[in-house]
Write a structure and sequence with these properties.
The chain is of the alpha+beta class. The chain has 5 helices and 5 strands; from the N terminus they run H-H-E-E-H-E-H-E-E-H. Strands 2-1-3-4-5 form a 5-stranded mixed β-sheet.
Length: 165
Amino acid sequence: MPHRTRCRDANTQRQDIADTLAGQDHFGGGKPMNPDQLMQQARQSRDRAYAPYSNFHVGAAVLTHDGQVFGGCNIENASYGLCNCAERTALFSAIAAGCKPGDFAHIAVISDTEAPVTPCGACRQVMAELAAADTPVTLANTKGQQRRTTVAALLPDAFRFDGGA
């Protein structure tokens, strides 16, 4: 049986992030949180990526309007169709923890790319589903380059299901 390391408790991880961001309000609050701090959380998530096939490590962090931060990394699988991107991992973690669509104040994504990394089409669609169109998205590389955009700018004509009407 392979050796397994124990995963960190989610509450412990959230507390660590809260401690890192202590003294800062979330976006839309009195004293704006520094986006670089959110990017630091994305960088830490990138360090947890499981990418044995591509060695392409991506990290993401999402900030909610009430100041919660959820990290995500890409997770690969030998069956490539089962891989999950960092952006979706972070957003899905937030939803699994009880957040709702529209709760997101900022999204940060980072990878070791030549230019700031951009989300894939699937991640853009999930962002469009779960975050407001004007939600800021900061894209970065590990060299320190950043680009700021919005969910709507990443996917201007996002698919919307009208319920079949």
